[in-house]
Amino acid sequence: MPKLPNNLASSASTLNYRRSLNNNNNMKREFVFPLIVGLIFGALIMIFWQFNVRLNNAGAVLTQLEQATAQNTKNVGDIITFINNATGQKGAAQTGTPAAETTNK
Description:
By secondary structure, the protein is mostly helical.
């Protein structure tokens, strides 16, 4: 078999190498698009998950606030009833305070 000159052998291997790079780039391009779509989809899922967690926390805080308000309303109502019973007054509407009535007499 005849020997090829060095420049022909190197150009043939260079062509082979370039072809493999082009095939590699095609595979990379095919892999990049689903990767980008997957990252965007994953980011959206994480954003909505974070929103859901914050919404659940806000709902729990609101429930605790409603319970505290109901308890405090009951306590204030009991205190008002006690004061009204202690001063001998009936009804919630007052024309004056008990302290003002004792000083006017």
